[in-house]
Amino acid sequence: MEKLPKAGILFAIGIVLAIIILFKSSVNIGAGEAGVLFNFFSGVDTSKTYGEGFHIIAPWNDMTEFRVKQQSFSDSMEVLSVNGLKVTVEGTVWFQPEYDNLPRLYKEKGANYVETILDPAINAATRSVVGRYTPEQLYSSKKEIIVSEIMSELTKELKGQYLTVNKVFVKEVKLPPKINDAIERKLRQEQEAQEYEFRLVKAQKEAERQRIDAQGKAAANDILSKSLTDKILMEKGIEATLKLAESPNSKVIVVGSSDNGGLPIILGNQ
């Protein structure tokens, strides 16, 4: 009879141990994540990346999970322009670890690779790009150009680091207040000068148009004056006289003498 309680206790202990072992041996990796196995005897297993779902491992081993879907890292940093002035750059980088090389990333760079690898690479790339420009160039340059250059430099910095950069976004480039105000004043003055130049050119073109128009009219009048001979004037005068004679309105018409070519002179019209 005494053996039954002992057997029950041993059975209960066995069940508990089995549950503990099963709990320690089972791993469920979530969506968008992957696992790296750390073997108690040999260290990080670099031969395999464990994907989503349920996995059974030896209880003395350990599984470390990482996000492998695209993620972002935002930062604000002070860098120097080409003439030594401080510039603040705010931006965001979208990246993800290389799935097949995740075990190597963990073994060589550690679990906190964002702080140890990505952040320094972003700083180095940004300093390299911003250091090529003056504050005036940074103010007027299109962000797309800066983004493209940072992306290129960042890709070089992360070569062989088991990380893929998908996109770089520069939110803002802040210049020192005095430099920023001076650049804005200069741009306003340039804009005003361009507007004045535009108005001046427009006025010059209008004056030229009027001059050409006046020359055209003068030339036309000169041609007309030369073409009006005495005979033509006499003919026009006769035509006018005939039209006046046909008009029903009462009037007095005196036909001119030979001094005016016989053109009609209207003395009255009612």
From TrEMBL:
Keywords: Coiled coil, Membrane, Transmembrane, Transmembrane helix. InterPro entries: Band_7, Band_7/SPFH_dom_sf, Prohibitin. It is a single-pass membrane protein. GO terms for cellular component: membrane. Pfam families: Band_7. SUPFAM superfamilies: Band 7/SPFH domain. The keyword Transmembrane applies. It comes from the Bacteria. The chain crosses the membrane at residues 7-23. Residues 25-187 form the Band domain. It is found in: Membrane. Residues 179-213 form a coiled coil. This is Band 7 domain-containing protein.
